[in-house]
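Exercise 7. Given the encoded structure of a 512-residue chain, write a plausible sequence.
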């Protein structure tokens, strides 16, 4: 036998000494016999199973109805149906609101209880639309009362202990989730039965023969030295060659750390950070950026619409009027606009923002000139999720406003993002099209595994965007996929790895 019984944990030793060969071993028997907690049982079972000392004999599921605080209150005060029936018997006919107020019950509870009682012929509404008694209390309510009384003794009931009639009666009183307002909470548990293996029986015999009780001291404390209690017991041997416990220090998520590093870098360059709500309206998400409401260019952003409330209450003036006029006829920008009737209802429609540029539009209305602004912004678009696309993603969005800013300045910023922040060695810039910038530039980088992909778009805002929002000077703008930059920076090959639930990746991956 390869097991050194001197190195067994006290939880294992006590369990081995307690059980008998051939008998069933369950969590319940160990808790009642040894006083273990559930976690200690699971540890002992797991350790001994891994050593080949225990084997699983059976595994069955059972449903437990645990009594909640609401159930205990109903046990003392009565079920709503009982209280309403009794109240009407003692006080005569009353309206539903009067019953709810008199018994301090929710109107919904009164309505549900009355519906049950009236369907069984116990209550009815008279000509004055008041509830009154009409028959005996239904048997179902009496069974529910009996179930509450039974459960109060131990705090729970097992489904197998209930009759078919009782199971039917308890069903409307129990919930799996959100059970705080219900008398019972449904808990589904697995009952696992173990038995000692032949190796387990040998280990048990060796433990008894070595006179190991599980009560041996594991640590010598100052208190033991002071009181002398160490003299009255024996110590567990130290495993000098045993592996040390793994140290897992706290560590920030690598992607979160990267986002903060990008922010710190931009702030160090003199940029001010902006932010805003996830829910926007079509005005700021598209109209303020000179994206026509009913044009194919709108398909660039396939948005998620908000169901409730559907529309924003209002759009700020004078921006609404000036942007609407720009769409219709160009307003005072020198443009002819898009030449259609601006839809003031559509522009209030609420969406999850589909691009970070919406925050740049907001910032134009309150920006200082000259000024440099940026944001790290979460966006949402309906898209096929793959190694380089996600249905929700982060962009780094920014604008630079100044009398003398130009395309060369913009290319310098794009170079910084591609090479310094993303860490790309191969970069190219290609012409692009966006309704809100002219000229427009896309920046592409080459990933060692995924190959070339677009990092994002940029350009100089058109006058149709800036002037209706109060800006006359040139504005450089960019919206880059910071998730994709992180792929290069962190040495990953799939965007989904940035948001993995695998905690091990957080423990081992380092950011900057």
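Solution.
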């Amino acid at each position: 036998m390869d097991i050194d019984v001197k190195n067994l944990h006290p939880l294992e030793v006590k369990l081995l000494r307690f059980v008998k060969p051939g008998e069933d071993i369950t969590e319940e028997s160990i808790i009642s016999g040894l006083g273990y907690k559930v976690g200690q049982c699971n540890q002992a079972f797991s350790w001994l199973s891994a050593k080949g000392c225990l084997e699983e004999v059976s595994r069955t599921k059972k449903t437990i109805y645990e009594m909640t605080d609401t159930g205990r209150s109903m046990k003392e005060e009565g079920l709503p149906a009982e209280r309403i029936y009794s109240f009407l018997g003692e006080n005569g006919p009353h309206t539903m609101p009067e019953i709810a107020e008199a018994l301090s019950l929710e109107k919904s509870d009164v309505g549900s209880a009355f519906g049950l009682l009236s369907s069984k012929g116990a209550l009815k509404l008279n000509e004055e639309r008041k509830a009154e008694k009409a028959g005996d209390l239904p048997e179902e309510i009496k069974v529910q009362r009996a179930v509450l009384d039974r459960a109060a003794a131990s705090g729970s009931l097992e489904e197998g202990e209930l009759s078919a009639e009782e199971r039917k009666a308890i069903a409307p009183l129990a919930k799996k989730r959100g059970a705080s307002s219900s008398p019972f909470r449904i808990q589904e548990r697995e009952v696992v039965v173990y038995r000692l293996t032949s190796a387990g029986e040998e280990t048990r015999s060796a433990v008894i023969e070595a006179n190991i009780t599980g009560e041996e001291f594991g640590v010598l404390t100052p208190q033991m030295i002071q009181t002398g209690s160490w003299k009255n017991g024996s110590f567990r041997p130290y495993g000098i060659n045993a592996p040390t416990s793994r140290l897992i220090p706290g560590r920030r998520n690598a992607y979160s750390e990267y986002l903060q590093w990008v922010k710190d870098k931009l702030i160090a360059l003199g940029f001010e950070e902006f932010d805003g709500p996830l829910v926007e309206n079509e005005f700021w998400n598209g109209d303020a950026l000179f994206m026509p409401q009913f044009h194919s260019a709108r398909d660039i952003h396939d948005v998620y619409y908000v169901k409730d409330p559907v529309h924003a209450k209002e759009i700020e003036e004078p921006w609404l009027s000036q942007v609407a006029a720009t769409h219709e006829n160009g307003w005072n920008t020198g443009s002819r606009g898009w030449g259609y009737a601006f839809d003031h209802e559509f522009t209030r429609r609420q969406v999850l923002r589909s691009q970070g540029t919406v925050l740049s539009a907001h910032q134009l209305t309150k920006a200082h000139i000259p000024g440099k602004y940026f944001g790290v912004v979460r966006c949402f678009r309906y898209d096929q999720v793959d190694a380089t696309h996600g249905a929700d993603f982060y962009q780094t969005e920014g604008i630079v406003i100044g009398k003398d800013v130009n395309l060369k300045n913009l290319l310098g910023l794009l170079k910084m993002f591609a090479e310094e922040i993303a860490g790309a060695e191969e970069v190219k810039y290609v012409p692009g099209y966006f309704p809100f910038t002219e000229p427009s530039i896309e920046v592409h980088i080459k990933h060692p595994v995924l190959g070339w992909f677009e990092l994002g778009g940029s350009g100089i805002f058109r006058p149709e965007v800036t002037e209706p929002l109060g800006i006359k000077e040139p504005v450089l703008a960019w919206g880059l996929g910071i998730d994709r930059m992180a792929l290069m920076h962190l040495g990953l090959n799939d965007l989904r790895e940035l948001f993995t639930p695998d905690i091990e990746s957080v423990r081992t991956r380092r950011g900057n």
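Remark. The radius of gyration is 35 Å. Students should compare their own answers with the one above.
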